[in-house]
Every structure is written in structure tokens, then in C-alpha cells.
DNA sequence: CTCTATTGCGAACGTTTATTCGCATTCAAT
DNA sequence: ATTGAATGCGAATAAACGTTCGCAATAGAG
């Protein structure tokens, strides 16, 4: 931030600018997000904008920061109520919450998430993963038997990204007639809950027909020992 | 295409332009993909570019078309060799193929996939899903017992998007030290193979503690009957 | 009230880029 | 060889946008 707002009016203006930035992005998309638009929307001049934000990116960063905080609070709010449930219910509850969250704010979260690789949403995603890991850990204290807890970082990564991006793509779908939201949540719940409670193949028969390596399309060399 | 190339030299030029477009995008990213750059790279003038492509988007569309075809051929090429394997091996083989494919072309596929929502990659993704469903169907003819085949469109959607975007995000990771590629493939294999061969909860105990709905963060109303 | 630091303004500037247009060059049919 | 169509060129045009700068309005201390 180029200058610190000391008087009250300027502080309000900074808030209004961040808010307006969110509105513009939600309505017009990140591509058409311009400083002039934001200034107009906030009933502020462009010059004033640049008095408090070094440039466009700084404004965007401030917005992302604010939303990041919101997300953290959301997770902390709903997590405790789910710790008593069984794994399936926990996963389903988190999924519904994620659905509601991503769809909120007039699609602002979605638009930002679509552009995850340009923004430092990388950090947000990572933080989100961490939060989920904490929930998992807290959950483990009450349901030790149900889950295998030797999760390396890979499992969390797989789950978070599978869920978030699948939801994102579903919400971006022009035609949602093929299957509805609840169906999707159920499918994801099945997949994730199964994955969580199963570190190894479940079907007794497939245990016998062990790891017969397939020839990959493009030949590759040294591969790690298969730790399942 | 604004004008059809009838002579041989112009046909070559069109090809060169599409090829150059891919190179520019792979090297500079879609953001810095400009018509002048493409023309220079193809040793062609900008004016000539606009003689065969109505605008920048048309050029991009032509590129996507070409890559879409490539992808289809890739899948058709590797699919037959996997039909004999067990589900785990099938999934693992497809995953490795997807990994190799996405990483190819100097990151061109990745850069395009990152921008999936701006391009009509929607169509490509959908086509990819269809292909996967065909493979699954073909696979079912030989391994009837191992899989539940009442897959609605939702299951395919979940799998495709989970896998593709998780791979995409992994490949976009600045620091890949946390876990390596093979580890990721194994995790995804576990998850997907488990999901495919299990339509309902596997743990006998969790069958008893049935669908105790969690209160979602934001209250929502009529929900569909839970078809698992 | 007076004075100064803070705040606010928005036209103007410079850069970047897509797209066009008038003219030159090449092809291929006669 | 001639000629008309096809092809190729790249400076010029125009629109969009981020950012600056000089000046006006305002707040709050003394």
C-alpha cells in the first residue's frame, strides 16, 4: 500500500475500492477488470486509487487477502459441528459447505479460482490444504479406528484439488441438466470417503492379482518402489 | 477461416502460423500471445495472418482443433494395450499416459488447460470424457465382474476432472519436492480404482451408521433422495 | 479563523495490441 | 509472354488501459 490512510474518510475509501474490485471481477470477469471501472464503481477517482495502491496488482492482492481471511473463518466456523459425525457425513458436510462457499459472492470466488495460476491463490490453496489437514487431525482424535492416518502430503493434495476443481468445473458448466448438485456431492463423497478409509485395495480378489505393471504408452525408466 | 488457401505456399503458411502460435503460447504464455509475435515466429507478415484467420481467436481455435485431434489419436493408440489388465493397472496406465501427454509439447497443453474456461476447451474436455466412457465400456466387455457399470454421467465427470486438474496443478507446482510423480500416480490410482469398483460404502460398520445428515453451514432446502 | 498536511480529482500521457489498407510480388492459366 | 487472381507485406490506425501529475477541496490543529 503506497500510503497509509490516516483519516477516516480515506479508510472508508480503501474499503470501498476493495469491495468495488470484487464486484467488478464478479460481474465482468478478471479480464475486464480495469482500474477505471473499479474507481467509478466505488465513486472514487482513479488518481485516488493510486494513492493507496501501488498498482492494479496491489489492489487485487488486497482483495485476495480479504477473501482468504473470509475462507479461513468459514472453515473454522463449520468444522467443529462436523467432528462428531462419521467419515462419510464429515466429507459430505464439508462438500456442501464448499459448494455454498464457491457459489457465493456472485461468483467472485469462482472467477478468482479459475485464475488460480495467475494470482497468489497458490498460497490460498495451500493454506486451505493445511486447514483441511488440521481438521483431519482433530477428527482423528475422536475417530482413531476409522481412518488411516499415515497420510503424507500427497493424499491431502489429491483430495483438495480433486474436490475443488471438480466443483469449480461443475459450477462453470453452462448446462447443469445432466446431473444435479446433490448427485455430484454424493459421488465425491463416495470417492473421497472411500479413499480416506482405504490405504490398500479393498476387493479380496484384486489383492491376489497384484501389481502387474502395464507397459506405459511412452516408456519411462526408474520408478519408485510401489508403496501402497 | 477468412479465405481458403488454394495454392501450396499459402497452405504451408497456414500450417506454419498454427505451429508458431503453439510455440509462442508455450514459451510466453497465453497472456503474451500476440499476433505480431506469431507472424514473426512463422516468418510471415501480420497482414498475411489476417488473410486466413478472421482474428486472433480464430487462430487460437485452429490450434486447439489440431491439438484436440492429437489427443484423440493418443488415447486411441494406448487404449487397446490396456484392455487386458486389471482395473488398477488400467487406471495406472492411463494416468501415466495422461502425465506424459500433459507434460509434452513444451508445456503447451498445460498452458491451454490452465485457461480452459476461456477457450472452447470445454468441448475438448467433454470429448475426452466421452472417450474415457468408451474405454470403460470396451473394458467392461472383458471384465464384467470387477466393475459396477451403472455409471451415470456423474462418475465420469468426477473422475476426469479430479484426475486432469490434480495433474495440472501438480505440474504447475513450483516446488515438486514434497512428493514425486510416481507417488501422485499411485495415490490417484488408489482413489480412482477404489471409486470405480465401489458403488457403496465398503466398511460394514459405516453401513449401520447410515445417512445422518450433517447440518450444512448455510441451510438449504429440498434435496434429492440419496441414490448411492 | 488560518494554515498546512492530507485527501481527492480526472484529463492527459505513453504503451501495448489487434486489425486494416494500399501496394508489391508471385502463381498459373492461356 | 501476358494477364488477372492469389498471395504477401508492414507501416499506419485506432482502441483500450495502466499510471501520473498538477491543481482543487477538505480536515483538523493551533
From TrEMBL, chains A, B:
<dbReference type="InterPro" id="IPR001647">
    <property type="entry name" value="HTH_TetR"/>
</dbReference>
<feature type="region of interest" description="Disordered">
    <location>
        <begin position="199"/>
        <end position="228"/>
    </location>
</feature>
<dbReference type="GO" id="GO:0000976">
    <property type="term" value="F:transcription cis-regulatory region binding"/>
</dbReference>
<protein>
    <submittedName>
        <fullName>TetR family transcriptional regulator</fullName>
    </submittedName>
</protein>
<dbReference type="InterPro" id="IPR050109">
    <property type="entry name" value="HTH-type_TetR-like_transc_reg"/>
</dbReference>
<keyword id="KW-0238">DNA-binding</keyword>
<dbReference type="GO" id="GO:0003700">
    <property type="term" value="F:DNA-binding transcription factor activity"/>
</dbReference>
<dbReference type="InterPro" id="IPR009057">
    <property type="entry name" value="Homeodomain-like_sf"/>
</dbReference>
<dbReference type="Pfam" id="PF00440">
    <property type="entry name" value="TetR_N"/>
</dbReference>
<dbReference type="InterPro" id="IPR023772">
    <property type="entry name" value="DNA-bd_HTH_TetR-type_CS"/>
</dbReference>
<feature type="DNA-binding region" description="H-T-H motif">
    <location>
        <begin position="34"/>
        <end position="53"/>
    </location>
</feature>
<feature type="domain" description="HTH tetR-type">
    <location>
        <begin position="11"/>
        <end position="71"/>
    </location>
</feature>
Amino acid at each position: 500500500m503506497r500510503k497509509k490512510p490516516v483519516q477516516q474518510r480515506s479508510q472508508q475509501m480503501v474499503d470501498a475500492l476493495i469491495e468495488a474490485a470484487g464486484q467488478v471481477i464478479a460481474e465482468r470477469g478478471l479480464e475486464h477488470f480495469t482500474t477505471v471501472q473499479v474507481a467509478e464503481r466505488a465513486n472514487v477517482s482513479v488518481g485516488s486509487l493510486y494513492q493507496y495502491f501501488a498498482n492494479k496488482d496491489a489492489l487485487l492482492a488486497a482483495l485476495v487477502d480479504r477473501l482468504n481471511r473470509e475462507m479461513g473463518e468459514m472453515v473454522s466456523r463449520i468444522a467443529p459441528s462436523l467432528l462428531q459425525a462419521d467419515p462419510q457425513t464429515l466429507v459430505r458436510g464439508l462438500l456442501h459447505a464448499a459448494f455454498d462457499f464457491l457459489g457465493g459472492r456472485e461468483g467472485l470466488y469462482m472467477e478468482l479460482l479459475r485464475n488460480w495460476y495467475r494470482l497468489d491463490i497458490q498460497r490460498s490453496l495451500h493454506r486451505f490444504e493445511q486447514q483441511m489437514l488440521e481438521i483431519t487431525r482433530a477428527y482423528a482424535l475422536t475417530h482413531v479406528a476409522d481412518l488411516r492416518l499415515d497420510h503424507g502430503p500427497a493424499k491431502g493434495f489429491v483430495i483438495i484439488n480433486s474436490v475443488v476443481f471438480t466443483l469449480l468445473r461443475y459450477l462453470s458448466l453452462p448446462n447443469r441438466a445432466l446431473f444435479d448438485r446433490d448427485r455430484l456431492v454424493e459421488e465425491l463423497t463416495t470417492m473421497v470417503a472411500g479413499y480416506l478409509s482405504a490405504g490398500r485395495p479393498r476387493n479380496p480378489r484384486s489383492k491376489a492379482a497384484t501389481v502387474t505393471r502395464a507397459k506405459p504408452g511412452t516408456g519411462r525408466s526408474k520408478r519408485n518402489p510401489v508403496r501402497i
